[in-house]
Amino acid sequence: MQITVIDAFTDRPFAGNPAAVCPLPAGDWPAEEWLRRVARELNLSETAFVRPLPDGEWGLRWFTPVTEVRLCGHATLATAHALREQGLVGAEPVRFHTLSGVLTAEPRPDGRIALDLPTAALTPTEVPEGLAEALGSPVLGCRETGELDILVAELGSEHAVRALAPDLAALTREVAVTAPAEDPASGYDFVSRFFAPTIGIPEDPVTGSAHTALAPFWAERLGRTALTGYQASPRGGLVECELAGDRVAVAGHAVSVLTGTLLATP
After folding, report:
1. CA 61, CA 89: separation in Å to the nearest integer?
2. Which of 66, 106, 115, 257 has its C-alpha lying 20 to 30 A from 92's C-alpha?
3. Same domain for 155 and 181?
């Protein structure tokens, strides 16, 4: 069984966010414990398992090293890239059946892949007690994100986001920190970082799902529906977003960096 490691939201190796993609044969999913063990063995922020469905569409599940998740953008992008590279799909949009409903991945002429994802519902909330201390920075305000279940925390500047060295043991939930870009000519509109130690991801390099919340957050402030975010992790990556009501297109490049054979089959 082939596994490919793909860097998503980047056009060069060793940047963006790596995801492992494991295509499975048609039929039932393997036992969940086997899926979990494979994800733990690979130890990337996400491992994607994809299998063909009878109607020409695909089933898709995502696992961190410790749990299954409801939505993952970069591993969906990586999966669409892998299926095209392996000749399993053509140039048409690919439809994935997931825990977050049907998601579409559409190739664009410039080589990017655009994901059609559900927009997170933002609700203002009080800054949780201890959050500023855990992050090591003042927090201007927070938003809850409904079913996405991450906290969006606004910081005072791009410098503050980039300089964070949070106390990960003190973070009790998944947090996306964000601020506006300092330089209008930088090529992006806002920056972010994403910390999720509670699900086995101390810092995620580039998080497509978080941009389903960051896009409406910054669209409201900047008065535009087309935005580009830069996730300022050590690996870094650009995420292009276009808001359309309750859906958001999240687009980026992907590049394959490693292919291997999984010997421990189900």
Report:
1. 18
2. 257
3. yes
The Cα–Cα gap between 32 and 167 comes to 32
Number of domains in the chain: 2
Do 110 and 199 belong together in one domain?
no
The closest alpha carbon to 251, from 233, 237, 235, 266, belongs to 237
| Angle, CA of 136, 138 and 139, to the nearest 5° | 115
Decide if 78 is inside a domain: yes
d(CA 48, CA 35): 9
Rounded CA-CA distance 102/150 in Å is: 21
Is the residue at 266 inside a domain?
no
Q: 112 exposed, middle or buried (CB, 10 Å; 0-12, 13-18, 19+)?
A: middle
Listed residue (160, 28, 191, 4) closest to 84, CA to CA: 4
Extract the tokens encoding 152. Answer: 């969006």
pTM over 0.85: yes
**pLDDT tens for residues 15-65?**
999 999 999 999 999 999 999 999 999 999 999 999 999 999 999 999 999
CATH number of the domain at 241, please: 3.10.310.10
Closest by CA to 68, choosing from 110, 95, 35, 112, is 35
Q: Could you list the active site residues?
A: 46
Rounded Cα gap, residues 17 and 79, in angstroms: 13
240 in the same domain as 142: yes
| DSSP β-ladder status, 247-252 and 113-118 | antiparallel
Other Cβ atoms less than 10 A from the Cβ of 206: the count is 32
Q: At which residue do the structure tokens 């009878």 appear? A: 54
